[in-house]
Amino acid sequence: MATIESFVPILDLGGTFVFAISGAVAAVNRRLDIFGILVLAFVTGNVGGITRDVLIGAVPPAALVDTRYLLVSILAGIITFFWYAGVDRLRTPVLLFDAAGLAFFAVAGTQKAIEFGLGPVPSALLGMLSGIGGGMTRDVLLSEIPQVLRSDFYAVAALAGALIVVIGDGLGLPYSVSALVGGILCFGLRFMAIRHGWHLPLAHHSARQRAAVDGLNQNKTTREGN
Amino acid sequence: MATIESFVPILDLGGTFVFAISGAVAAVNRRLDIFGILVLAFVTGNVGGITRDVLIGAVPPAALVDTRYLLVSILAGIITFFWYAGVDRLRTPVLLFDAAGLAFFAVAGTQKAIEFGLGPVPSALLGMLSGIGGGMTRDVLLSEIPQVLRSDFYAVAALAGALIVVIGDGLGLPYSVSALVGGILCFGLRFMAIRHGWHLPLAHHSARQRAAVDGLNQNKTTREGN
Amino acid sequence: MATIESFVPILDLGGTFVFAISGAVAAVNRRLDIFGILVLAFVTGNVGGITRDVLIGAVPPAALVDTRYLLVSILAGIITFFWYAGVDRLRTPVLLFDAAGLAFFAVAGTQKAIEFGLGPVPSALLGMLSGIGGGMTRDVLLSEIPQVLRSDFYAVAALAGALIVVIGDGLGLPYSVSALVGGILCFGLRFMAIRHGWHLPLAHHSARQRAAVDGLNQNKTTREGN
């Protein structure tokens, strides 16, 4: 299965690149300066994997040691800085690349955790974290609630791909097979969710909704404490 | 003192559970979807301990490797999701369980740091961090200033319990004794703070208050940079 | 070069102190209680170095093990708590000390990463992170976008100092020489940026600016998802 393995670095750096683009676009939208744009690009492209590496003890993290991750992130930041209008118009292709990046990160992150001796459940969790951690940190730095916590099938798609890798490992299948199946499942779920607007259910909380009508401003003031 | 030690896993998982409930309730209040609720439950129940483990070099962290922490967190999230109104009505019992969870986390976190060879001061700090780190991360993910930084005796209670364990260790007392005393002190302080509305002092900053009267909106715009 | 090395602990603890002052002042401005003020002081003074230490595998981090960092941070918090008006009036000297702290942290952080075997690029990045990480975490805990991502030459000055250390190491110069040159460069850039109001460029994003005029409130609602 040499064909798949020769694609791995391309997919990995490609995933970093599209994640970094999404970070840079968010930074431009919030009017950060060029340094802020580069930081958001690097953070979004790499913090998921860095956090995974810290948690499994793989320090210093690969994304710091291998300079290509930095270069790819800077490239994404610079392209967005000089060509924001163009990048913004490419929203749909970027979403598809982002789905591909998510699929790759989830699958490869799971495999790395397995290789470091973690069990199936933590490995799948860390695979998912590799995929969603960068975007979560991007949103926290922009003082927003992470989108992945309030929207569609993003994390679920990553988790599904990660679980396939874990199950494949348990069944003794070669990594290239389970990675391919897991990656396609993750990408496919994400693609369908974008196309059909799938989203996850919210909890009913009628008591609070009533309270909200009664005294929204008061509640808000109390909660936000300002 | 086998009686105490046989309670330890129950208290530990019980503490995780009540912390996870508080994360899930906060997630429902901010209208996160079911995945966001489960993430907030897990984060609030476990990130304090995970951060402590990363800082003392105990990787992969126990909360990732031992699947029961995940299961207990998911259980708390699902209960909150389907039964939010009921959980919300149980506010007072949840506060008491939360105080118990805090006491256990502070005491056990301190002991773990001591066992990893840290000195008394960092051990007490890490014990406190074990107790408050999950709730702080919950609030950061919800884009709020952590409650523990602006309210009553929460962290101080955790620190008091942690200090008892450190002092007990210095005096050569058995862990079960100092853990019991430290845990009761932490729980008691927290209970009294809830019951009597104890809170910590704020700084006087009359210069700023004057400025605030002069130009509040202007200041706010500048500070928040939007 | 014993003269320089005997200054190192003073500069290091001095840098921690001025960073801690900036955290404590921000905490008072947001009306945190005394515990919140102490936490913000410690976080701002030490999280940059702690994060660097976690990423290079130097756990437990020096700022936890060596109690002087805690004591200096608490001292800064208490001074600010009792003497806020005075500290606030010392804004310009504090900015200069802050520039000195940044210079020292960037240089010493880079050197520590080199000593742990990291290559030149990650070492320079980690040196910069040592300098800016504390302030970034301070702002995240206060639910604000980190100032360093949207303002003047702060991070660039840190990076410039870090690069000098890396280049000096590559050329085989003694650390005391490159540290002195790098530190002076960082301090000088920061000083000039404060004095002359230097800042980094923003991206043009006319498409969005047009959209903003058309429907600002609508966009904002969507983006912030409330």
UniProtKB/TrEMBL annotation, chains A, B, C:
Family membership: Belongs to the UPF0126 family.
Top-level taxon of the source organism: Bacteria
Gene Ontology cellular component list: plasma membrane
Subcellular location(s) per record: Cell membrane
Membrane topology according to the record: Multi-pass membrane protein
Transmembrane segments: 6-28, 35-57, 69-87, 94-114, 120-141, 153-173, 179-198
Protein name, entry field: Trimeric intracellular cation channel family protein
